[in-house]
Structures are given as structure tokens and as C-alpha cells.
Amino acid sequence: MSNTRSRGENVSPANEQVTASDARRSVAALLERGRTMTTPVLRAAVDRLAPPMNTVAAYHFGWIDATGRPADGSGGKAVRPALALLSAEVAGAEPEVGIPGAVAVELVHNFSLLHDDLMDGDEQRRHRDTVWKVHGPAQAILVGDALFALANELLLEQGTTDGGRATQRLTVATRKLIDGQAQDISFEHRERVTVEECLEMEGNKTGALIACACSIGAVLGGADDATADALERYGYHLGLAFQAVDDLLGIWGEPSVTGKQTWSDLRQRKKSLPVVAALAAEGPAAERLGELLAADAKNTEIGEFSEEEFANRAALIEEAGGREWTSQEARRQHATALEALNGVYMPEETRRNLLALADFVVVREK
Amino acid sequence: MSNTRSRGENVSPANEQVTASDARRSVAALLERGRTMTTPVLRAAVDRLAPPMNTVAAYHFGWIDATGRPADGSGGKAVRPALALLSAEVAGAEPEVGIPGAVAVELVHNFSLLHDDLMDGDEQRRHRDTVWKVHGPAQAILVGDALFALANELLLEQGTTDGGRATQRLTVATRKLIDGQAQDISFEHRERVTVEECLEMEGNKTGALIACACSIGAVLGGADDATADALERYGYHLGLAFQAVDDLLGIWGEPSVTGKQTWSDLRQRKKSLPVVAALAAEGPAAERLGELLAADAKNTEIGEFSEEEFANRAALIEEAGGREWTSQEARRQHATALEALNGVYMPEETRRNLLALADFVVVREK
After folding, report:
1. Among A25, A292, B148, B293, which is 20 to 30 Å from B179 by CA?
2. Domain A19-66+76-363 adopts which CATH fold?
3. What phi, psi does A124 have (nearest 5°)?
4. Its family (chains A, B) (predicted)?
């Protein structure tokens, strides 16, 4: 895939010689750095919540189990915090400068997970029961609200102009994220959704917040709006690549790795990319799939389907080309993301790290 | 009550001669001004929401009915917008300067109503079915989230330092509001709640946002933090007075006027001020009430109680002194609110209007 990497002018050809295992090590280190540097600040922020919200949030983040005992859940892949710290480095600032942004983005991301899991009726996340299952719907709503407010509070209490700019970008991203969830819900009640509509929804639901993670550190580090906008473009397309991979994992992912149920997205009748791409195709597999899904839409008992019935739908999606198209789309979005970095001046190592993270996003298995 | 009004030094004694009917007219005009000046901006903000959230929000605000036809619902008393515009005048600015603040506070207030109605299972608000009843729980969550985000968006897109300061105050108020709702929910599962705990909860749930309404216009008008803090104190205690009256109306209010069910708060086992004050009293009525409520707590069928059973509980609360204590508390908070204005320099007419609004809050019937 190295031919898709058209790097900035300040990158010398010698730096293209990064081996795959170097890159893997580099990504693991970046994710670990993001987690290590932001978790204490995130925990301190969550500690501000009044009981029982602090406990419910700690359960959600995987810091305690349902009985309140300490647990060592990682709270997810932490791609966003890693990106926010790199983003500060793009502006020539220390990664520390990005921490409030990293934490704020992580708080908004988890606000959306808490509410989405409840709205979608999802019972499992990260191999554990979701908050509404364990603590009830009211706590899922309330703690989600509290995390959202906390995100703005953290950024604004910096008391700086850049803190205000960062909050504004985060707010716009959050509104898009909510728009995306609204579109996603509405798709479940519609028989047909176009590929373009699906990409727009995913751009809102996933792209916008990853875009914000990629610019927020730079904004806090004093970058100008043009730089922040270019970083947002990188993040937006990275987010779409991320989501395309997520859509593949939502159907063909290994449950023991992803922490979700088998055929998770099919169970929820998600009109994800592989599904809409397959339905948009021509030929007998697309036709048969269309008939089956139209019948499913009238059937409220989809939860009672056998594994074979789901496997059959997944096979038809693949046969109609939905799986392959989505893989290619992930690669296309990956390439567009990298292009957005071309005109942005940044330290050599930061650029290498942003490229490595982009590569990771499209090859991950969970 | 005029002896509780120790006004600022720049108010001449001649201005004390305001008759009751003048004051009523003045309050009606202030509320009308708040509604007229803010509604177009509020509607334009709601129009930004993607479908179907714009429609769901329009239903919530009373602009359309459940079938989508235009309706003329007022969307509530609009005390907060009136206060926010007066707040701008305190800083010597035109009331228009307070509009983004008024709209932002109204958006946060309605975000909390949408979520609280769902969490509390309330089926009616302002004489109409609540959003979750009509459009389902997911839309109530989603549109609430969207209104919260929109509030910050409106304030931050001003792009001014004062817009950032206003957003920070609103964010802190929103976090308190969420804390208050968390406390309120937790009280329903507890047998005993002290009067102090109840006042703390109500200060968070109602006081904090009214406090913000009272300072946000001044902040947008460039007032210093000391002035904004004094206005928040006025608003905080005004909010507690408001809530004490609300608690009285929640038990003894006339359903055809309040738009709520009879004995609304008793049906929901709310540990509101009259209840906790009655339980804290001594004597046979308080004792009998305690026994009844303890038995109710074990009984999940409280919704099936007869009108007589609710009337009996209400009578015991009154006999134990809970009704009278709450009335007095409303007057105490009203007096403390007015005291907070003493040291604040402001135009004569603005002070008169803030006093008139405070009086209205404690005498209203809905």
C-alpha cells in the first residue's frame, strides 16, 4: 500500500523504509502512550461526578466490575487519545498539550456509546454487559449526559482562546455525531438506503469525532485554522476507513476478538456499508438478499433467527460483492486520509506516526 | 412582603410605590418580551437539526402537534428567557445582547426535560403527551442530546471571549443540573431524605440553571465576574423559591392549571420538600405518614392507588406541617434572592423588573 502514501515535501525518501514490524511496534507504543498519558486525567474527571454516576462511569470504562471491584478493562482501543496527542505534536507542541483535548474527545465518544447502546438495545460492549443492562436505562442516560458536559467543562476551564476554539470544534463534531446516530436509527426502518446515504451517516457518526481528535491537540497547541482543517480532513477519512472496517467486523468479525455477538450488525438490521453495497449490486445474490431483508423488515422476531439464517444472509452479502466493495472503500478512504496530510508541515516523526496509525486502522481485527 | 426588599443604594424610596396590578402587568410584559425576542432564534436553532429530530423538537416545544400540524403551544412559562434578557440590561447592554444566552439556557432546560421525563416515566407535560410517549425513548434521548450540543454551539459561534465565559458558566450549571437529577432519582429509592439533602438536590436541579439564566446576559454584555456571581446568587435562590412553589403545586396544584396529573409528585414517590419537611416533624401525623410511605416503598403498585389514598397522604403531609414549612421556605429563598441584588449596580427599571419577576415566581399557580 506504500504507493498510496504521498507524503509531504519535507519527508525524505529514506524514511519510506519502515518495516511492517517496526510499524506495528510503533502503533502499539502510540496507543499505549495515549492510554498512559490520558487515563489519569480521565479518571480524575470522572471522579468529579456525584455518586452513583462516578461508579457507573467507572464500570463503563472498565475500571471496576458490576459489583464494584477493581477491574483492568482497557476501555477500548484508545485510537482517539493517541491521535489527539499526535495532533499537538503537529503544531510543534509537547504531546501533553493535547491531553485535555484527548480526554474531552474520549468523554464525548463514551457519552455516545452509553446513549447508543441504550437506543440500539445493545447488551454487550467490550466483552461485558452494557451500562443500561447492569445499572438501568436512567443511569445510562444520566451518565452519558454527565460525560458530555464534563468534556466541555475540561476544555473551557483552561480559560484560553484556544480552549474555546477546541470546544467549538468538539461541539460541532458532537452535533454531527448525533445527526449520524439519528440517520442510523432511521435507516433501520427503511427498506432501501443508498451507498451515499450510508457514507454520509458514517461520516457523521464516526468521521466527525475522529476528525476532531486529529485537530484538537493542534488547536490547543495554537495551530491556525487551515492546519486544523487539514487535520480534520485526515481524521474524517480515517474515520470512514475505520468505520468500513468496523462494518466488516460487525458481520464477519470473530466474536471472541471483537467482544460483540456473532452477526452483530445483521441481528440489529443495520444498513451498514456491506449490506447497502450488496443491495446496490446486480445479479441473483443481490436480488435474493433484497427479498430476504424485505421479508425480515416485516418480521419482528429477527432476534429468534438461527445461526444458519444469519450465515446465509452474510454469504449473500459477500456473493453480491458487499464485502469486497467495503474492503476497497476502506483502502480508498485510507488513501484520501493520507493525501490530506500532504500540505501540512509537521515534524518528521509525527508524520510517520500518523501514517502508521492510519495503516493500523485498516488492518485491525477488533 | 415589601419589608424583605432591601434594594440597592441607587434605588430611590419613591420607586417602592408599585401597585400589585402594575407588577402583574409588568411581569406579563417581561415574559412576553422574553418569548417574542427569543422564539425566532430558538426556532432557527431547532431548524438546524437533521430530520426527524427537528420535528420531534418542534413537537416538544409545542410548535406542532403529534401529527405534524402547526400548534400554538407556548412551550412553558419562559421565565428563564425573560431573566436572561434582563441580565443583559444589568450590564448596561441592550436586551438583544442576552438573546443567545436566553436561547442556550432554554435549550439546556428542554434537554433536561426530555431526558428527565423519560427517566421518570412522566407521560404528560404542558397538557400534552411527552416526547418519549409520542416518538419513543430513542428520539427523546437523541433530541435531548442534540439540544444540549446546540446550546453550546450557539454561544461559541459568537467567537467572543464573553461567549466562551458564558459557555463555561452554562456548562457548570448543566453539570449541577445533571447531579440534581441523579440525586432526585436516588432519593426515590431511599426511605429517608433530610431537608438539607432535598434543598441541595433542588439547588442543583433547578437553582443552578436559573442562576445561569440570571447571569448569562450580563456575561455576554461584558459584566465582570463579581457582578455575574451576584446575579447567580439571586438566580440560585430564586430557583429554590421557584422549586418550593413547584413542590407545593406538585401535590396541591390544580391539574387543569398545571397540566400535570393530580398528586403528581406523590404518584412518583418524589421526596419533595413538603414530604421531607413533614417526615422531619414530630407528632402523630408525621409518624403515620412515615409508616404509610415506608409501606408504599415496598409496594410496586403505587400507580394503582385510589384518589382517596393519595388525598390521605397529602392531608397527613399538611397536618405534619410540610405544606406550611415549604410556603415559608419559598418566602425565605425569595428574600435571600433579593438580598443578592443589593450590591449590584444596575438601571433602576431593570432592578424593578427583577424584583417583579421574583415576586411572580412565588405567587404563580402553574
Report:
1. B293
2. Farnesyl Diphosphate Synthase (1.10.600)
3. -130, 140
4. Belongs to the FPP/GGPP synthase family.
- One-letter amino acid at B55 equals T
| Residue keyed to cell 427537528 | B54
- ipTM of the complex in this document: 0.90
With beta carbons under 8 A apart, name residues in chain B contacting A53. Answer: 178-179, 182
From chain A, pick out residues whose CB is under 8 angstroms from the CB of B178.
53, 142, 145-146, 149
From the candidates B168, B185, B204, B212, which should be mutated to test the interface with A, based on the most A CB atoms within 10 A? B168
A164 interfacial to chain B (CB closer than 8 Å): yes
The grid cell for B242 is 421557584
| Digit-coded pLDDT (tens) for A259-314 | 777 888 898 888 899 999 999 999 999 999 999 988 888 876 666 788 899 999 99
In this complex, do B149 and A175 lie within 8 Å of one another by their Cβ atoms?
Answer: yes
B167 touches chain A (CB under 8 A): yes
pLDDT band at A14 (very low <50, low <70, confident <90, very high): very low
pLDDT in tens, B281-324: 999 999 999 999 888 878 766 667 888 999 999 999 999 999 99
Contact yes or no for A178 and B137 at CB 8 A: no
Burial class (CB in 10 A: 0-12, 13-18, 19+), B9: exposed
Give the distance from CA B264 to its chain's centroid: 17
Q: Which residue of B has its CA nearest to A186?
A: B52
Residue A335 half-sphere exposure, CB side, CA atoms within 13 Å? 9
Is the Cβ of B157 closer than 8 Å to some Cβ of chain A? Answer: yes
Which residue ranges make up each domain of chain B?
18-363
Q: Cα–Cα distance between B256 and B365 in angstroms, integer? A: 11
Rounded to whole angstroms, how far apart are CA atoms B232 and B237?
9
Which one is the CATH code of B18-363: 3.40.640.10, 1.10.600.10, 3.90.1170.50, 3.40.50.2300?
1.10.600.10
